[in-house]
Specification:
- With 354 residues, the protein is an alpha/beta fold.
- The protein folds into two domains: 193 residues, Rossmann fold (3-Layer(aba) Sandwich); 156 residues, Rossmann fold (3-Layer(aba) Sandwich), CATH 3.40.50.2000.
- The chain is built from 14 helices and 13 strands.
- The protein starts with a strand and ends with a helix.
- The radius of gyration is 20 Å and the shape is globular.
- The strands form three sheets. The chain has a seven-stranded parallel β-sheet with strand order 3-2-1-4-5-6-7. It has a three-stranded parallel β-sheet with strand order 8-9-10, sandwiched between helices.
- The chain is 39% helix and 15% strand.
């Protein structure tokens, strides 16, 4: 069986790109198709057979790629996949718009239906004028997106939350296959930085502002790792106890995770891969009790949950984490439920079952 992989764009390393990296290990030698590829931003894919669409000539930067979103359905439809018996698309955008040949199997691993189309209240938080300016175009793209979803052979969802969204959005059922973490890369340590940690793209719907405000208000130390258009706004409201690192190498992120008091996940995530990464490093997460965190964090057992997105609720959870008595070995065992080897076995099994 000849297999092709497809992903939205390789212009930034995030959780979805780490899933795709695991897919390339599961199907070694399979070409990876994408709209645009920036080798400097995604070095993990350098040396692999990455094939781009006409969008590569327009941009290889993620911000510009998003601005040119109206070209992406056509970009994926233009990819020639006629040589392949099976196509695995990884999509939170338009990768599932590809057109494999009629007798080929198409499995879509869905990180979330395109948020800017189907969850605009979250995606355009604080940008109401932009949302309503784009609404006529978004309505048309929703029709295209639903039609493309109808052509997908079968769906895999990265969480129960996303499975429900796929059903509500597309009227399709999906099998849950949680994202993978290479747990062997993480080394727990008894050394502590006495600082809380956020690892996230800095976008309004990620609610990093909540963590910044909580740390500033309570005088607790917080490190923020990640980049995004919300960084200037977050830095402007941050107190002296909050530090911004921007993008840092993976090895440094693993070290920060292993030494932090706790990772903070302040928004409702589709899955929340960083929670599992923190557990693999032997540290708990403080997670807002919604979305994918409900599948990875049990309050007081392998992390801490706050049920209201407010500064007082998060501060209370942060103080609980400072008195943490959770066994690091239990956290590592929790993370191993999502190990990359398990992911690969289940993905191959899904493909064999057709």
């Amino acid at each position: 069986m000849r297999v092709a992989l497809v992903h939205d764009y390789l212009t930034e390393m995030g959780g979805a790109e780490r899933v795709v990296e695991a897919m390339t290990r599961t199907f070694p030698g399979a070409p990876l198709y994408t709209s645009a590829f920036s080798p400097s931003a995604c070095p993990a894919f350098v040396g692999l057979d990455v094939r781009t669409s006409f969008a590569q000539r327009l941009t290889s930067r993620k911000g510009a790629a998003k601005a040119l979103f109206f070209t992406l359905p056509a970009a994926f439809r233009s990819l020639d996949l006629s040589a392949f018996d099976a196509v695995v698309s990884s999509s939170s955008g338009f990768a599932h718009h590809v057109r494999p040949r009629a007798d080929a199997l198409h499995i879509c691993y869905c990180h979330n239906p395109p948020r800017f189309l189907w969850q605009p209240e979250d995606y355009f938080r604080g940008r109401t004028t932009l949302r309503w300016t784009l609404e006529p175009a978004l309505a048309g793209f929703r029709r295209l997106d639903r039609a493309a979803a109808g052509r997908v052979g079968s769906y895999l969802a990265n969480s129960t939350t996303v499975r429900k969204r796929i059903r509500a959005t597309y009227g399709r059922d999906a099998t849950v296959l949680h994202p993978p973490v290479d747990t062997l890369l993480y080394q727990p340590t008894a050394d502590r930085s006495d600082r809380f940690l956020v690892v996230s793209r800095l976008l309004p719907y990620k609610r990093v502002d909540l963590a910044v405000d909580a740390a500033t208000s309570a005088g607790l130390s917080l490190d923020v790792v990640g980049e995004g258009p919300d960084r200037a706004r977050l830095e402007a409201r941050a107190g002296k106890t909050v530090s911004f690192f921007g993008r840092v190498p993976d090895g440094e992120v693993r070290d920060l995770l292993a030494r932090c008091t706790a990772l903070i996940l302040p928004g409702a995530e589709d899955f929340g891969l960083t929670v599992v990464e923190a557990q693999a490093a032997g540290r708990p997460a403080i997670a807002y009790g919604a979305g994918g965190a409900l599948e990875t964090v049990t309050d007081g057992v392998n992390g801490f949950v706050f049920t209201e997105q407010s500064v007082p609720a998060l501060i209370a959870a942060m103080h609980r984490a400072q008195d943490d008595g959770i066994d690091p070995d239990a956290l590592v065992a929790s993370a191993r439920r999502f190990d990359v080897a398990t992911f690969g076995l289940r993905l191959r099994s899904t493909l064999r079952a057709g």
